[in-house]
Amino acid sequence: MKFNSQFISFILHFIFLVTFFCPIYSLKTSNHQIVNQTLQFEKEFQKINKTIKAQLQRINKPAVKTIQSPHGDIIDCVLFHKQPAFDLPLLKGQKSSDSQAKTEGHNQINNSSVNSQLWSLSGEFCPKETIPIRRTKEEEIKYGRKSISFQERLYEVITYVEGGGYHGAKGIINVWAPRVENAEESSSSKIWVQSLTAKESIEAGWQVCQKRYGDNRPRIFTYWTVDAYKATGCYNLQCPGFVQTSRKVVLGTPVGPVSIIGGDQYDFNLKIEQDQKDQRWWLEYAAGNENYERVGYWPFSLFKELKDEANLIQFGGEVVDLNPTGDHTSTYMGSGQFAQQALGRAAFIRNMKVAVTPNTYIDLPDPEYLEEKPDCYSIKGGFDKVYESYIFFGGPGRSQKCP
Question: Which of 140, 181, 203, 273 is an active site residue?
């Protein structure tokens, strides 16, 4: 078959055009996809930012007075009935409650008394009819929203009692500033009051978590959930639920001084107690030899299983391990010393008691002990005339025995 020169020229030109322009078209298509993905990312980013700002607006209520803490926190004095708890539809009708008036008469603020709440070192307190709330920062909301792509591991060493109905728990909690390896990890010492299924839980104690609070100081905290930590509840006042009544105690602020290995030991008193009359679960706090201060309460309307009584009480320490490498975290529990090191070196909770009826407290009846990884964190307990029911606990985390 013969081809004339014009036809051959046409074929060669067509091949050139296809060879030259197809990659350009492909590049344009690829660039178009990148532009679309970038626009989609920007839209998603703007949506998240809008959501975060809306959350901050809901949490950080308008302040009557603002106090700058010596340790960097901003404390907003918010009108009692304007606090986040009353955003919850279940509590709308309780806005006119005289709960604060009832507790203030019982807990007079004495500026000359010893106070392990470091925010009050400035000598300032919130005015009457207001409560102090630590202002939440944008970074804290982002941390709360962060999706962890690797398996979160939780390690606890606890003593516990279960079965019969309990109406309260109290103890004296030793304060430390444990080393925390990862800014998103946490280490805490606390008391848990739970339903038998552990689906419903209220907790309080001290906690170190840099991402949540901005530093590595031990801070007093509360937590609650009614669905086994899945979707409900939050820390402190960062969602509707816990009703604050105290003008003296600020949740989420540092406590101190902290204990020193082989040196002075510092602690505070904590009590979670159910009111027989209205079935509220009250949180009470005391530093040194002070009288208990009623911090606030979890309303009975939050719960189903904890409405009448608790069936499980726990005391001890907890470490959240987010180490993505698979190795155990080197985050300390307590002082970082094992329980066997005992007084002056290991963390402790002493004078532990449970209420078998409202206001009737007894020493822990036949307590059980749980240590999930004893080569990493350990616990031991007993009874003493001075310390009554007590536990020592803690550990350094990762080591040769705890890889």
Answer: 203
pLDDT tens by residue, 290-339: 889 999 999 999 999 999 999 999 999 999 998 777 899 999 999 999 99
Distances (CA, A) of 245 to 53, 91, 98, 273, 300: 27, 15, 10, 15, 16
Q: What percent of the chain has pLDDT over 90?
A: 64
Number of domains the chain is built from:
1
162 catalytic per annotation = no
The tokens for 94 are: 């309780």
Tally of helices (H runs) and strands (E runs) in the chain: 4, 18
Q: In this model, does residue 22 exceed pLDDT 50? A: no
DSSP 3-state of 165: strand
Give pLDDT tens digits for 107-160.
433 333 333 788 877 778 899 999 999 999 888 887 765 434 345 688 999 999
Using DSSP bridges, classify how beta strands 368-371 and 347-357 pair: parallel, antiparallel or unpaired: unpaired
Size of the chain in residues: 403
Sheet holding 74-79, edge to edge: 65-68, 74-79, 130-134
Q: What's the pLDDT score for residue 92?
A: 67
CB < 8 Å & 24+ apart, contacts of 137-140: 137/214, 138/52, 138/56, 139/211, 139/214, 140/211, 140/212, 140/213, 140/214, 140/238
Domain membership of residue 29 (yes or no) is no
Query: What span, in angstroms and rounded, lies between the C-alpha atoms of 52 and 139?
Result: 10
pLDDT at 7: 46
Q: Which of 273, 284, 309, 318 is catalytic?
A: 318
Tell me if 84 is assigned to some domain.
no
Look up the pTM and report it.
0.84
Domain that holds residue 212: 114-122+138-394
Look up 368 and say whether it is catalytic: no
- Give the CA diameter of the chain: 115
337 within domain boundaries: yes
